[in-house]
């Protein structure tokens, strides 16, 4: 999110620079160089159609376009990420338990699943009927908590036996 604010600040700065250049060109136009006074009102002249490749306003406008494209791309990414669902609590709890006991992660990333507000799922269960949701969210966690804990088998042991 902070990057989005930095991009906005950069765009504001570039816009103020463009305004400063436009005022300077208008002042020069009033001093005799009429073409420069038209830059702010005629994009064809501003856009180098007449061979004016050194136009500072046009160069600044190109900088703004590039930064605006970067800003819009990042903004849309943030918007899409914000719409992604958080994982179900029991799925996250199961993942945490699995990683604590048998997980291959032994570095600082072992605790990457602590802040559930910072996590997302690629695909959440959708359009399930009421009975399925009840089984998934209520019955299964209850089963694991009360009965399933007595039947746990080490995943690493199962994988070793299969090989």
How many individual helices? 7
How many strands, what sense, and barrel or not for the largest sheet? none
- Report the radius of gyration as a whole number of Å: 30 Å
Structural class: mainly alpha
Core attributes:
163 residues
Description:
Helix content is 64%, strand content 0%. The two termini are 46 Å apart. It has 163 residues and is an all-alpha fold. Helix 1 runs antiparallel to helix 4 (56-82).
Summed up, what is this model?
This protein is an all-alpha fold. The chain has helices at 2-30, 34-38, 43-46, 56-82, 89-102, 130-146, 155-162.
Describe how the helices and strands are arranged:
Elements: H1 2-30, H2 34-38, H3 43-46, H4 56-82, H5 89-102, H6 130-146, H7 155-162
Helix pairs in contact: 1-4
């Amino acid at each position: 999110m902070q990057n989005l604010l930095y991009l906005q600040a950069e765009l504001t700065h570039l816009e103020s620079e463009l305004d400063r250049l436009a005022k300077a060109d208008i002042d020069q136009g009033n001093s005799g160089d009429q073409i420069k006074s038209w830059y702010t009102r005629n994009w064809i002249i501003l856009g180098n159609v007449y061979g004016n490749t050194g136009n500072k306003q046009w160069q600044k406008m190109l900088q703004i376009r590039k930064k605006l494209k970067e800003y819009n791309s990042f903004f849309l990414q943030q918007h899409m990420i914000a719409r992604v669902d958080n994982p179900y609590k029991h799925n996250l709890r199961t993942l945490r338990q699995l990683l604590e006991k048998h997980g291959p992660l032994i570095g600082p990333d072992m605790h990457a699943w602590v802040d559930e507000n910072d996590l997302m799922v690629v695909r959440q269960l959708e359009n399930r009927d009421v009975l399925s949701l009840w089984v998934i969210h209520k019955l299964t966690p209850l089963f694991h908590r009360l009965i399933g804990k007595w039947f746990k088998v080490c995943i690493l042991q199962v994988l070793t036996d299969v090989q």
